[in-house]
Amino acid sequence: MSDQSTIQQAWESKNAAPYLKSSRRGLDEDLVREISQSKNEPEWMLERRLQALELYNTIAKPAWGPDLSKLDLASITYYAKASGTESTWDQVPADIKETFTKLGIPQAEQKFLAGVGAQYESTTIYHNLKQQFKDQGVIFEDMDVAVQQYPELVKEYFMKAVPANLHKFTALHGAVWSGGTFLYIPKDVKIDLPLQAYFRMNAKGMGQFEHTLMIIEDGAQGHYIEGCSAPRYGVDSLHAGCVEIYVKPEARFRYSSVESWSKDAYNLNTKRAIVEKDAHMEWVGGNFGSHVTMLYPCSVLIGEGASADHLGLAFANSGQVQDTGAKVIHLASNTSSNIVMKSLSRGGGQSIYRGLLDIRALASNVKARVNCDALLLDGDSKSSTIPEMKIANNTATVAHEAKCGKISDNEIFYLRSRGLSKEEAETMIVNGFVEPITRELPLEYAVEMNRMLKLEMEGSVG
Amino acid sequence: MLLEVKNLSVEINEQEILRDLDLKIEAGTLHVVMGPNGAGKSTLSNVLLGHPNFKVSAGKIIFADQDITNLSPEERAILGLFMSWQHPPEIEGVALDQFLFLAYKNIFSARDKNWQAPSVFEFSEILKKQAEILKIKLELLKRSLNVGFSGGEKKKIEMLQLSLFNPKLAILDETDSGLDIDALKIVAQSIKDYHQNKGTVLLITHYPEILDFIKPDFVHVMIKGQMVTSGGEELINIIKQTGFSSFIS
After folding, report:
1. Model ipTM value
2. Is A420 on the interface with B (CB under 8 A)?
3. Three-class DSSP category at B198
4. Measuring CA to CA, how many Å separate A243 from each of A79, A172, A181, A302, A366?
5. A244 pairs with which residues across the strands?
């Protein structure tokens, strides 16, 4: 079997996940109580879960955007652990393991990707870093652990930036969330090294409805990154994660992620940052895989002088809809934002840029730039741009640029006439197209992203 | 015979651009094809290189004793065909040196199974040496391919590749257009160097100026998709004096 076909199979696999077969499907109050109980959660968290469940039962699926009618919410396994299934690495199918190995992913990360509760074997580096963070008062923990150990912090911020009533899937998330990352950087602490997801991979049951909560105090700085170059072999075909980031006055934070989902998954993720006075938030994201992705990281600029950068890339391959974009809400004066989104479509895939730029009446002298760039890799693929702009203050300076084009035959021919194969030429052009995004990633993630692109380029028809 | 084009007819979008065209090029010679705009000169060079948008409706192309009519552009590059483009594309985000390294490895490893690829460092030394000969600013090598390069810089980058890939036949498509006199001299010199080093040249032009620097062995006049006359240098003088009108029957 060639490398390619194995990887293809892993991607297109219907998520049979035999080791989780006995888990229970569907959602009701009993399950929510069971989740909370199995995590030994305090009463207030259970109450929030139950409130969210109530909202979930009353809110309809979004009536806009990609077609979600085939998403059968009653057949989803919401909590794998609930049935007592303890999945292990040994039960993960051999071909999936093989794919991970071929992609060069370390075993600790493989276990995470496979959705099995991994016991992370701590390395010296890991310990040293952790100790250093601890000495500075940094908390970097699994979200479930944070609920137990830092209840005041969690209680104050949990689902305030992303309230459960935002839409159906945040309500769902509020009811069944499990695992995720908690990060607290105290005042004026600056962390140069990117904090990576696998530093806290000793937790169980993450992946599907993980909650990420990050609090960056005044004047603090940090960079969090998570990524994988393989499809997450999830419990079921729905992912509804949530990321909340609080960037306090004069703080700076960057959140980077390279996400890849198996090709039958619905990835309905909600990410929001609240950015205070003179603080700065950066989102860097790459989206691969999934059947449908709806993801629009949002920055709410609430303090004067706050700013946000959104850099994103989405790749829609055969049978996929990537409905992604960015939202920036300018609530204060002298705030600025910059959105750069790139999309690639191939094999009939569809990319949609959906954005919102919302400049409120009291926000004067706002500067905003939106730049979206779509590249179609063949004649069957589609791309569209839906940039909503609400500008209620006429002192704003807004620039918007959207480009959409098919990959140039002439450029491909040029590179081929210099000895590159058609695939190499296309990959080179595509890598060049996304370079403004990859250059913002740490080297190993940039390499992973290019590898992802290469796989997407090879693994398609036509 | 290095190149033999036999009865070649070519269409694009069902429109015939080349009709029954013949051309023979002996190894080591320097040929010039001249003709007015729209004669099909650029089509000829694109077809020789294997541009997939052009359809060969009749005839064939023999190169180095092999029928290459249906070969891909990359196979032709490996066999030793090279074209210097009139308007090489600008490709954002593709670093010139990285592209050249991949192309270099592809071409030479396919030409010779025992070929040892240079390291990145060794390759950058090779590049630097060539760039200095052509008076190319070294910082260009790190930049996106042709993005924001001047006309002269683009042509020099094409010449850099000519010397790098060491082809059997170099097709130079309007290589002299858009150059100032200093750049023209440098480009002409690199063509001469290549030719004196046993390279075979097919120079396509509609300006005779470059021929003040380069002496052709053969001159062909192309009108409306066909070679109407072939001869020696004397044809250049006719074109200089009366243009192409005397060749249009």
Report:
1. 0.96
2. yes
3. coil
4. 19, 14, 9, 18, 26
5. A213, A272
CB neighbours of residue A59 within 10 Å: 17
| pLDDT surpasses 60 at A166 | yes
For tokens 């490709």, name the residue. B91
**Residue B122 CA: distances (Å) to CA of A119, B6, B125:** 45, 42, 5
Q: Which amino acid would we find at residue B130?
A: Q
The minimum CA-CA distance between A438 and chain B, rounded to whole Å, is: 10
Q: What is residue B242's predicted lDDT score, i.e. its pLDDT?
A: 86
DSSP A395: T
Predicted pLDDT at A153: 96
Contact B52 A413 (CB under 8 A): yes
Domain-wise residue ranges, chain B: 3-247
Q: Rounded to an integer, what distance in angstroms lies between the CA atom of residue A293 and that of residue A316?
A: 9
Do B239 and B223 touch, CB atoms closer than 8 A? no
Question: What are the pLDDT digits (tens) for B187-234?
Answer: 999 999 999 999 999 999 877 778 888 889 999 999 999 999 999 988
Amino acid identity of A232? R
Domain chopping of chain A, boundaries:
3-458
Backbone φ and ψ for B76, nearest 5 degrees, come out as -65, -40
Q: Is A455 within 8 Å of A314 (Cβ atoms)? A: no
Task: Answer yes or no: is pLDDT of B38 > 90.
Answer: no
- The class (CATH top level) of B3-247 is alpha beta
Binary contact (B103, A432; C-beta < 8 A): no
φ, ψ for residue B187 (rounded to 5)?
A: -65, -45
